Amino acid sequence: MQRRDFIKGIGISTGLCLSGMTTWGWANEKKGKILYFDLSTEWEHPPTVDEEDGTSKAAKIVQKLGKSIGYDVDVTKDGSIFERDLSQYAAFVFYTCGDLDVKVENRTPVSQKGLTNLLTAIRSGTGFLGIHSATDTWQCKGPLFENQPEDERTEYIKMIGGDFITHGEMQEATQSFTEPIQLPYLSSLKTKNLRVFDEWYCMKNFNKDMHVLIVQETKDMKNQDHNACYNRPSFPSTWVRMEQKGRVAYTAVGHDNERWETDYVQNIVKDLMSFVTGNLDLDMTPNMDQVCPQADVLQY
User: Fold this and answer.
1) Model pTM?
2) 127-131 and 89-94: which strand pairing?
């Protein structure tokens, strides 16, 4: 599990743009495309496995969701895409896993130039949405159940806002929606929380400037033996933040094909795509200390 130092030394500023009560939005001309990227160099999640037509299940759904909000979606596992012109994209959607600079059979990795271009594009205003194992991508080094100092975290992890530790068995758990409930789909549910079945990631190295939308409640989770990672206080599960001019979002849902068939996963992804493309404005005031104040406690 301990890896990920490829992007640590990239000399790109990570200045923060948050202060006070802020709603982010801009009137730039709308770009016409979203780039969906699902390269995995470690465990390949079922929704990212290419089907007989050469496209993964998650990719097909993201394309459908993109069209529903007015965007064509390019789909690829080719890491060289980031060495090309990225200016046509309103946002990137990542369902990735592992160090993406590592060469795997029949796949082109992301080069250091490509990663630099990706981070530069985000910091210049292109949105970014990470799904599920996107936090198990270019991870930080260091002891598994310890938070790493910010200056020892990879640039990618600082950008996405959190870092995967491990997970237990798939189980039903409570997802609590922070108030005011901002995502249109969550608001339509007319509830403050929901019991949801998925594979729940335990995470660390949270970026303090995030606005948490969904909290992973742990008090009612199985937490013994191989589920011991959940023996901790509640922590962020879905959040948004700014990476300089770029809107960033992450959601932990969507482990398998069955989850991707649910309204819960599809509508959360759709609303977050609307946010990162600049079509949905949210209050971005940092709230992690209020809604899950012990998120940095990784084990009781």
Assistant:
1) 0.90
2) parallel
